Amino acid sequence: MSESKINELKGDIDELNLLLKQAKRKRVQDLLSVEVRKLETEWISLRDSASSATPMDVSPIPTTSTVQEKRYQVKLNGYGWDQSDKYIKVFVTLKNVHNLPKEQVYCKLTDKSMELIVENLDNKDRYTLVINKLLEPINVGESHWKQKTDMVVIFLAKQNPMSKWSHMTEIERKFEDQRSNRFKNDDLDKKDPQESIMSLMKNMYETGDDEMKRMISKAWYEGQQKKKDSTIDL
User: Fold this and answer.
1) Cβ–Cβ under 8 Å, residues 131 and 90
2) What are phi and psi of 171, to 5 degrees?
3) Furthest-apart CA pair in the chain: how many Å?
4) Any bridge partners for residue 131, and if so which?
5) Which parts of 14-135 are beta strand (E)?
6) With bands split at pLDDT 50, 70 and 90, how would you rate the model's confidence at 67?
7) What is the pLDDT of residue 120?
8) Please, are residues 165 and 88 in contact by the beta-carbon 8 Å criterion?
9) In degrees rounded to 5, what are phi and psi of residue 173?
């Protein structure tokens, strides 16, 4: 992915956050927040992909036949995460991973990093997912992982139970802090806030999925009803 695409996404995120600060209605704020998080996830994924090596061919595995099959290593970037009082739960989707022996699915953990390794799945030598600089330290001894249908779930035990992680890594939090500080100094009066928000909402409706369209339609309808009720009261 080119550097220009990454910069374009970053510009979209910055402008969305400007509009988010200008939005007055709660539902509009929620819609903008959803779009911001979606673009941030894509931006981080593209940035990490650009900075890492591309999947590489490894030496063919010797066989008794004269034909040798190429094998590959694949670096994973996508994952989901959630948390409870005790654990940070990382969800990694891999088709058919539940069919592998347990010794072929394992993690290497430190107090501030994790690496998931899946061996010999779908003619790939190895799948790996590396997450460095976790937001807070984890307890390696109490952490574990499980294979589920088409998924691996890693349970990272918090060293500080009951703490709430705002982000998965220090890098993500640093990015958010820098963005927030920058917006404090922005001139918010350069654009008509209402016009900018309406234009953005229209674009989100035209390009969004069914759920996004439903939320936008509901927000517009409630806004119109509120205006109508105010007019009647007068």
Assistant:
1) yes
2) -65, -45
3) 89
4) 114
5) 57-58, 71-76, 80-83, 87-93, 105-110, 113-121, 124-131
6) very low
7) 93
8) yes
9) -65, -40
Summarize pLDDT for 121-145 with one digit per residue, the tens. 988 899 999 999 999 999 999 999 9
**Which one-letter amino acid corresponds to residue 224?**
Q
Among 7-21, 92-106, 117-131, which is the least confidently predicted range? 7-21
More confident residue, 152 or 195: 152
Buried-exposed string 136-169: b where 16+ CB fall within 10 A, e elsewhere: eebbeeebebebeeeebbbbbbbeeeeeebebbb
What is the pLDDT, as a whole number, of residue 87? 96
Residue type, 108: K
d(CA 234, CA 74): 65
How far does CA 28 lie from the centroid of its chain?
Answer: 21
- Give the span between the Cα atoms of 53 and 6, in whole angstroms: 17
Predicted TM-score (pTM) of this structure: 0.51
Q: What angle do CA 158, 133, 125 make, to 5 degrees?
A: 95
